[in-house]
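Priority: medium. Attachment 1 of 2:
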């Protein structure tokens, strides 16, 4: 690592990589407990099918954070900026939890700056 840049060498390729770390702070819990005019509908908080809100997951449709969970086993997937990657991903097919949620979300971005 040279001044924040990694040097990757191979016989025919020499590339310089730059790593950027993006942080986002989120609330430590789900504070809204009920929904409806007279608070008659309870909102499921905590784990649903082994996932919580803001868990980092990897699926066929992409890699990102759990945004909204549904009782059917589907959920919305977003990146760290809050932009939707996919609105409907199932937990039942090729969904792998990479990291559990914390109050600080972390995402690393690698970009190449040059090739020879």
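Attachment 2 of 2:
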């Amino acid at each position: 690592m040279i001044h924040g840049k990694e040097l990757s060498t191979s016989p025919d390729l020499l590339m310089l990589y730059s790593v950027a770390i993006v942080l986002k702070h989120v609330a430590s819990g789900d504070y809204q407990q009920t929904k409806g005019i007279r608070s008659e509908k309870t909102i499921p908080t905590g784990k649903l099918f082994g996932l919580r809100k803001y868990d980092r997951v990897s699926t066929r449709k992409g890699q990102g954070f759990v945004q909204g969970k549904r009782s059917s086993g589907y959920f919305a997937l977003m990146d760290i900026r809050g932009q939707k990657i996919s609105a409907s991903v199932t937990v039942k097919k090729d969904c792998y939890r990479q990291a559990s949620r914390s109050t600080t979300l972390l995402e690393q971005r690698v970009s190449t700056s040059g090739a020879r």
